[in-house]
Write a structure and sequence with these properties.
This protein has 226 residues and is α+β, with helices and mostly antiparallel strands. It has one domain (19-223): Heat Shock Protein 90, CATH 3.30.565.10. Helix content is 47%, strand content 21%. The strands form 2 sheets. It has a 5-stranded mixed beta sheet, covered by helices on one side. Helix 1 (19-49) runs antiparallel to helix 2 (57-81) and helix 4 runs antiparallel to helix 6. The longest helix has 31 residues, at 19-49. The protein is globular, with a radius of gyration of 20 Å. The chain starts with 18 loop residues before the first helix and ends with a strand.
């Protein structure tokens, strides 16, 4: 009688989604980002119209103003990070910094922007925005997200370091960056990472992630020619 334990069954990684499914996941992710500030604006308007809540008028106006700013910041960021963004093929790094700072204004993480190239092509711009947002999301309790980019010999190199005591990276984000299907995770977190993987792969680049105590690091390369 053998003492050898039976081998554990090998589970195949989940299949990547079909294009229509991916589009649905991306749309759901964007709706999730927009619904919170949009709902807050509606709540503020309801308070203004409530005759029994006139003593809360200042609070309602503050809620409307802050939520409108958040919604506008997210829309402008998403237009470049996920959309066609008009006909622009190159993006000024100062414009990209403004978009990222707009999103970080509504996160707990602080932004340390150290991007050297004065401009980058469209795929590199999208990659940079998504990497920066992933870096901020890796610090739900606060910390510093350092965003660096350099260009040499036709290649743009990105390094995003999320540094904080509670830095973390969800398994579904790692799976997405590797080009794997979602599995059991939350599609809202997975789809951005998977989109970034596809974006870089199609442009001839690569993306990596490393998790250590108190730090999550993303690194990526992409051709810098337009």
């Amino acid at each position: 009688m053998s003492d050898v334990a039976p081998a554990e069954p090998v589970t195949a990684p989940p299949e990547p989604p079909r294009p229509a499914e991916l589009a649905a996941y991306l749309a759901a992710r964007m709706c999730h980002d927009f619904i919170s500030p949009a709902s807050a604006i509606v709540s503020g308007l309801d308070l203004l119209e409530d005759p029994t809540a006139q003593d809360m008028r200042d609070e309602a106006m503050s809620l409307i103003a802050s939520s409108a700013r958040k919604l506008a910041d997210l829309l402008q960021f998403t237009r470049v990070a996920f959309g066609a963004s008009a006909a622009a093929e190159t993006f000024d790094s100062r414009v990209l910094e403004a978009l990222v700072r707009g999103v970080f204004a509504h996160m707990r993480a602080e932004l340390d922007w150290q991007v050297e190239p004065p401009s980058v092509n469209k795929p590199a711009a999208r990659a940079l925005l998504n990497l920066a947002q992933l870096g901020g999301a890796a610090l739900p309790m606060g910390g510093t997200t350092r965003v660096r980019a350099a260009q040499d010999a036709g290649t743009v190199t990105f390094a995003v370091e999320a540094i904080g005591g509670r830095a973390r990276l969800r398994p579904e984000v790692l799976a997405g960056l590797r080009g794997e299907g979602m599995g059991e995770g939350l599609h809202g977190h997975w789809v951005q990472a998977y989109y970034l993987h596809l974006l870089l792969r199609d442009a001839g680049g690569r993306v990596f992630a490393d998790v250590s105590e108190g730090q999550v690091t993303f690194a990526a390369t992409i051709p810098g020619d337009g």
